[in-house]
Design goal:
By secondary structure, this protein is α/β, with parallel strands linked by helices. The chain has two domains: about 10-140, Rossmann fold (3-Layer(aba) Sandwich); about 155-305, Alpha-Beta Plaits (2-Layer Sandwich), CATH 3.30.70.270. It has helices spanning about 20-30, 45-55, 70-80, 100-105, 120-140, 155-170, 200-210, 235-250, 280-295, and strands at about 10-15, 35-40, 55-60, 65, 65-70, 90, 110-115, 175-185, 215-220, 225-230, 260-270, 305. The chain has a five-stranded parallel beta sheet, sandwiched between helices. The chain has a five-stranded mixed beta sheet with strand order 9-10-8-11-12, with helices on both faces. The chain has a two-stranded antiparallel ribbon with strand order 4-5. A hairpin with a 2-residue loop joins strand 4 (about 65) and strand 5 (about 65-70). Helix 7 packs across helix 8. Mean pLDDT is about 85; it is low at about 5-10 and about 310-315.
């Protein structure tokens, strides 16, 4: 599920310098203002920490033991360890010259800081760049998230599914997709054909979020279709996941015991080793969507169908 942009979390700043005193100096300025400071003393360790910890801002020494700051900044950008929206600052042991500033900008840095550090300047730069990073993160999330549900939209789902699929391929792990479609039994006058009434949409969204794992990628494929991409789930586990999600959706009807105001159908597809599968993440979602189409066109086959198995599935609820 997508992270909420703008959550009240402290900004994380990765400081990479060979000078212990420089790290302590910056930390004494930043930590009292609520910033979380991470330390690194080599270029290699900086690349590792940036990839693992996803800092909001990176501060690089102009000269580390195993690389200079410009080259390290360039590596962070060209290897896509951090995006262009992550501010990088270079620290210099002297006042920055025009040549220093231009070289830093060409390497992908946003600016320079000169030693000894001026607390007011450091806080002003970090505050301004941090706000820009937050605004960029909000815009990015807004472009990938469905406004009505808070789940990924098609674009966001596709992007995240490809990221998860890439990991599954590298790890020779299982990967599965479940597509669920609750069709409203009674059409409300103000709801367009094919759309879900707001109450049903909210109900399904809450049920999916409560029943899914944190590692599951959940998105809205259309007005009344939802997809869940699950790591470490093969074909058998994909069916079990679909049944669990279906039970969560149908079983959470309020008031309890009342029949749901919709008919739920689903399709699933899973592979045991995604590296060996001759498909990509989008094809996996399309296979699960095709299985859903089987369930919709052949109700006698059951509410849940697998792409590779035309047999009936147990009825949800």
């Amino acid at each position: 599920m997508p992270d909420e942009a703008g959550a009240a979390l402290p900004a994380v700043i990765l400081i990479a310098t060979k000078q212990e005193w420089a790290t302590r100096s910056l930390e004494s300025i930043l930590a009292p203002r609520g910033y979380v400071v991470l330390r690194s003393y080599t270029a290699r360790r900086t690349l590792e920490r940036a990839l693992r910890d996803r800092p909001d801002i990176i501060v690089l020494d102009a000269q580390l033991p195993d690389a200079n700051g410009d080259d390290l900044c360039r590596a962070l950008r060209t290897r896509h360890i951090v995006g262009d929206g992550t501010p990088i600052l270079l620290t210099l042991p002297r006042p920055a010259t025009r040549h220093d500033r231009v070289a830093a900008l060409r390497a992908g840095a946003w600016g320079c800081l000169s030693e000894p550090f001026d607390a007011e300047e450091v806080l002003a730069l970090i505050g301004t760049f941090g706000a820009a990073k937050l605004a960029a993160d909000r815009a990015r999330v807004a472009g990938l998230v469905d406004e009505e549900t808070g789940l990924y939209n098609v674009r966001g789902l596709t992007r995240r599914a490809r990221e998860v699929a890439s990991h599954a391929s590298r790890a020779h792990a299982a990967l599965a997709c479940v597509v669920l479609a609750p069709d409203a039994e009674v059409r409300e006058p103000d709801v367009a054909p094919g759309d879900l009434p707001p109450t049903v949409l909210q109900h399904v969204t809450r049920a999916l979020k409560s029943a899914g794992r944190r590692s599951d990628v959940m998105g809205r494929l259309g007005p009344s279709a939802f997809a869940v991409v699950a790591l470490d789930a093969d074909a058998t586990q994909a069916r079990r996941l679909a049944e669990r999600l279906g039970q969560a959706i149908v079983g959470a009807v309020d008031p309890p015991g009342e029949p749901p105001p919709f008919r739920l159908q689903a399709g699933c597809h899973g592979v045991a080793d995604f590296h060996a599968a001759t498909m990509d993440a989008v094809e996996l979602i399309l296979h699960a969507t095709a299985a859903l189409r089987k369930a919709r066109t052949d109700p006698a086959g059951g509410w849940l169908r697998d792409f590779d198995d035309g047999g009936p599935a147990p009825r949800a609820g």
